[in-house]
Specification:
The complex is a heterodimer of chains A (about 230) and B (about 325). Chain A has about 230 residues and is of the alpha/beta class. Chain A has helices at about 20-25, 40-50, 100-105, 120-125, 140-145, 155-165, 190-195, 200-205, and strands spanning about 10-15, 30-40, 65, 70-75, 80-90, 110, 130-135, 150-155, 165-180. The longest helix of chain A has 10 residues, at about 190-195. Helices cover about 35% and strands about 20% of the residues of chain B. In chain B, helix 1 packs parallel to helix 4 (about 85-105) and helix 2 runs antiparallel to helix 3. The chains are: A alpha/beta (about 230), B alpha+beta (about 325). Chains A and B meet through strand 4, strand 5, helix 5, helix 6 and helix 7 of A and helix 2, helix 3, helix 4, strand 4 and helix 5 of B.
C-alpha cells in the first residue's frame, strides 16, 4: 500500500476551535474533534437568514462548528433519538447565506462535502477568520456516527424534519476530516484540479469531435447544435 | 405459494444488509485499489473508507448517512405464486421500506420534488421504484434492495453511429471528469453504461449495469467485454482518484448493457455506483426457504435474449449472469 500518511499531520481539537488552531491549519491536515457541534443547512439558513427567525439556542453554547449534514436518525417512541450514520451534504449550494450566518452564529469552521470555490472562501470565509473542513470518502458515515456520543438537542425537528433540523451533537474523536481551506482562502480541491487539468488535453487527443453538440457545451442559445 | 409476510420480513432484512454490509466483490475492488494507488491523499481516502466499512458492520449502523433513493428489483420465476398476488408483493415492499427506514435507521431522503413533503419513511409518490424481470422455469422470487446516491455522476447523451467508439470515450471522459472533481461522484465507482434502446431504456440499462452486476463480471459478448475493460482503464488513466485528488482510483469496474436502438442513433447513459455501493439480494423459494447473497444475478441469458424465440437450453453456451 502506498502509505505516505507520515507526511500528513493529524490534529485532535476541542470545540469551540480557537483562532490559534485555525491559523495553524495547513491544507490536507487530518482533523478529529471533541466537544459540541451543530448541523445547519438550507432549512436553518432560510429560516434564520432569510426570515429573520431567532436561533433556538445561544450559538456561543453549541461550539463554533457548523456541519452541513443530515443524520440518518429516527425518533424513538419515548422521544429519545437513534442516530445511525452521519455524512455531509454538498456545501457549494449554501455560499449565499454564509455572510449573515457567520455574523449571527459566530461560526468559524464549516464541515461539509466537496468544499466551495476559493473565490467563495475569500469572499465569505476569510473575512470572518473561518475555514472549511471536508468529510472524507464520501462518506465515512459509520465512523462519524460512532463519534457522536449524545444528541444534545434537535431544534425545529417538527417544522423542518429530520434532514433539515438543527441537531446539536456532543462528539468524541469525531472524524476524519481534511483541511480544505485556509485563512488565505486556498483550496485543497482546486490544487488537485489544477494538477489533474495538466493531463486533460492528452486524454482527448485523437478523439474526433461529436456529430452533434448540445447545450452545456455552448452557452450561446443562438448557436445551432448541428 | 410464497407468503407476503415472508416477503416483507425478507425485504426488511435486505434493507439492513444493503445499508450496512459492503458487498464482498466491491470491498475486494477497493482493497485492490488502495494497494496500487500512488496518490497519497487518494490512498488516505480509500483507507478511511475501508475502516468505515468495518465500523458499519461492527456497530450494525448504515455505512453512509445519505440513503440515496432506496429501491427494489424483483425477478419473478415464471412458476412462482404469491399469496395475494403482485399487489400484495408491492405492499410488502412499501411496508418494509418504511419500517426499515425507522428501525435501522436510514435517513428519510424521499420528498416531493416541488413541495418537499417528507413522509419520513422513504415512501411516497412513485417511491420506492420497483423494477421487474422474469425467469423461465423457476418457482422462486429474487428480491434485490439497492440504495444508490442520486445527485451526481449520472448523465445521458444522444450519440450517433458516426460518433463510434470515440464518441463513447469522449462522453465517458466528460462525465467522469465533470463529476469526479471534488469527488462529487463519490468515486471510485462501479460505472454502468447503457448503450442503445430508447432514451428511457438506455437510462434503465445503464443504471442496472452499475447496480446489478458485480465487480469482475463481464458482458457475455466478447467485444463488449473488451470495451468494458478498455473504458475502465481509460477512466483510471484520467489522473484523478478518490475525492478528485491526484491518483488513479476512479473506476472499480465498468459494465455495459446494450439494447437494440433506432437505426439512426446510439444513445448512451453513464451511471456511477459510489463508494457506498449498497445492494443485497435474497432468493425466496416456493417452500419458504431463503438464501441471502450479494450478487443480484439480474442479467440472465433470458434477460439478454436477442431474437423472437427463447430457447431454455441454448446451444451457444453463452450462459452467464
Amino acid at each position: 500500500m502506498a502509505d505516505r500518511s507520515s507526511k500528513r499531520r493529524t490534529l485532535r481539537l476541542k470545540t469551540p476551535i480557537s483562532a490559534e488552531d485555525i491559523a495553524d491549519f495547513r491544507l490536507g491536515d487530518v482533523v478529529y474533534l471533541d466537544g459540541l457541534i451543530y448541523t445547519g443547512r438550507e432549512g436553518v439558513y432560510k429560516r434564520v437568514v432569510d426570515e429573520g427567525a431567532e436561533l433556538p439556542v445561544d450559538p456561543a453554547q453549541v461550539g463554533n462548528v457548523n456541519f452541513h449534514c443530515s443524520p440518518a436518525a429516527a425518533v424513538r417512541e419515548d422521544g429519545s433519538y437513534n442516530v445511525g450514520a452521519v455524512t455531509a451534504t454538498a456545501s457549494f449550494r449554501f455560499a449565499k447565506w454564509l455572510d449573515r450566518w457567520f455574523e449571527i452564529s459566530g461560526c468559524k469552521v464549516i464541515i461539509g462535502k466537496g468544499g466551495m470555490t476559493s473565490e467563495a472562501y475569500r469572499k465569505h470565509l476569510v473575512p470572518q477568520g473561518a475555514v472549511y473542513l471536508t468529510t472524507v470518502g464520501y462518506g465515512t458515515g459509520a465512523l462519524l456516527g460512532r463519534g457522536i456520543k449524545r444528541v444534545v438537542a434537535a431544534h425545529w425537528l417538527e417544522d423542518l424534519g429530520i434532514a433539515q433540523a438543527m441537531w446539536v451533537f456532543e462528539v468524541e474523536n469525531f472524524g476524519p476530516f481534511l483541511v480544505e481551506s485556509d485563512l488565505q482562502g486556498n483550496s485543497l480541491f482546486e490544487r488537485a484540479n489544477a494538477e489533474v487539468a495538466k493531463n486533460l488535453d492528452a486524454l482527448y487527443e485523437g478523439l474526433k469531435p461529436p456529430v452533434m453538440s448540445r447545450y452545456g457545451e455552448t452557452d450561446d442559445r443562438k448557436d445551432e447544435l448541428i | 405459494m410464497i407468503s407476503t409476510q415472508t416477503l416483507q420480513n425478507v425485504a426488511e432484512e435486505l434493507m439492513a444488509k444493503a445499508a450496512i454490509e459492503i458487498p464482498d466483490d466491491y470491498l475486494a475492488g477497493v482493497k485492490g485499489m488502495a494497494e496500487t494507488e500512488e496518490g497519497d491523499l487518494s490512498a488516505f481516502v480509500l483507507r478511511a473508507m475501508l475502516e468505515n466499512y468495518e465500523a458499519a458492520k461492527e456497530d450494525r449502523r448504515a455505512m453512509c448517512a445519505d440513503t440515496g433513493v432506496p429501491r427494489w428489483f424483483v425477478k419473478l420465476g415464471n412458476e412462482a405464486r404469491i399469496e395475494g398476488g403482485p399487489v400484495a408483493l408491492e405492499a410488502a415492499l412499501r411496508r418494509a421500506t418504511a419500517s426499515a427506514t425507522h428501525e435501522i435507521p436510514l435517513r428519510p431522503n424521499r420528498v416531493h420534488p416541488l413541495w418537499r413533503t417528507d413522509h419520513n419513511n422513504n415512501v411516497g409518490l412513485n417511491a420506492p421504484e420497483i423494477d421487474y424481470s422474469f425467469e423461465p422455469e423457476a418457482n422462486w422470487i429474487d428480491l434485490t434492495a439497492v440504495h444508490k446516491g442520486g445527485l451526481f455522476g449520472t448523465d445521458y447523451r444522444m450519440l450517433f453511429p458516426g460518433d463510434g467508439i470515440d464518441g463513447i470515450k469522449r462522453f465517458l471522459l466528460d462525465t467522469l471528469i465533470a463529476f469526479g472533481k471534488r469527488g462529487l461522484a463519490c468515486q471510485p465507482a462501479i460505472v454502468g453504461i447503457g448503450l442503445g434502446g430508447s432514451k428511457d431504456t438506455c437510462m434503465v440499462l445503464g443504471k442496472q449495469a452499475a447496480c446489478l452486476r458485480t465487480v469482475g463480471n463481464r458482458n457475455p459478448d466478447p467485444r463488449i467485454a473488451a470495451l468494458e475493460m478498455e473504458l475502465k482503464d481509460l477512466g483510471n488513466s484520467i489522473g484523478m482518484g478518490a475525492m478528485g485528488f491526484v491518483g488513479s482510483s476512479m473506476v472499480i469496474d465498468c459494465h455495459i448493457e446494450a439494447g437494440f436502438t433506432h437505426t439512426g442513433g446510439m444513445p448512451m447513459s453513464v451511471h456511477a455506483f459510489c463508494l457506498s455501493s449498497r445492494r443485497a439480494t435474497a432468493r425466496v423459494h416456493a417452500d419458504g426457504g431463503i438464501d441471502y447473497r450479494t450478487d443480484p444475478k439480474w442479467f440472465t441469458p433470458y434477460m439478454r435474449r436477442e431474437t423472437v424465440e427463447w430457447q431454455t437450453d441454448p446451444a451457444s453456451g453463452a450462459r452467464s449472469a
